[in-house]
Design a protein that fits this description.
Blueprint (H helix, E strand, L loop, with lengths): L1 H12 L6 H10 L1 H7 L3 H12 L10 H11 L3 H17 L6 H14 L3 H14 L4 H13 L3 H14 L10
Helix pairs in contact: 1-3, 3-4, 3-5, 4-5, 5-6, 5-7, 6-7, 7-8, 7-9, 8-9, 9-10
């Protein structure tokens, strides 16, 4: 199972652009996801905190993505929400880069965890319309479709995720 998580992690981080932020996220920041998904949430939180010591304070906004991801993996939308909004402000300060699609992707996951399926579906569709169909956002779209009773669409979305990301274990469970 850990090998599948690592493979999925490697496939996912390959999508990040080759700029400073993308390089940082690929090479240093994304390992926390594996920790959180294998039930080691406290270690994931500690790993993110340790990264803060490696970054200038002006870049700490990057870590909000990780904090939000770990909170969502732990089914804690109350912790995820402020991290997401802090990330949104950070990205806006960068000029609203392509990373803004991730904010809506995270917001939709919070909405799903709060039982706001209609809002979640609208939010994730907006996110997918703005950027590439990456695994996390496809899985969220499928979950939102399923939560809204759109079972055929959900199945098609999950199948699309599996076709686009066959090496990722996450593509096979929903």
């Amino acid at each position: 199972r850990l090998e599948d998580a690592i493979r999925g992690h490697e496939q996912w981080v390959a999508l990040w652009p080759r700029d400073r932020f993308g390089t940082f996220m690929r090479e240093r920041a994304m390992g926390y996801r594996i920790l959180a998904r294998t039930g080691r949430v406290d270690e994931a939180v500690a790993a993110i905190a340790a990264l803060a010591s490696e970054l200038p304070e002006s870049m700490h906004g990057l870590l909000q993505y990780g904090r939000a991801q770990v909170a969502l993996i732990a089914n804690d939308p109350d912790t995820a929400r402020p991290a997401i909004e802090s990330l949104a402000r950070f990205i806006q300060g960068l000029g609203g880069t392509a990373y803004a699609v991730h904010v809506d992707g995270l917001r939709s996951r919070v909405q799903l965890q709060e039982g706001k399926a209609v809002e979640a579906l609208a939010t994730i569709k907006r996110s997918i319309d703005k950027g590439p169909a990456e695994l996390h956002r496809l899985r969220t779209l499928g979950a939102a479709q399923r939560a809204n009773g759109e079972f055929e669409d959900a199945l098609a979305t999950f199948e699309r995720a599996r076709e686009l990301y066959p090496a990722s274990a996450e593509s096979y469970y929903q």
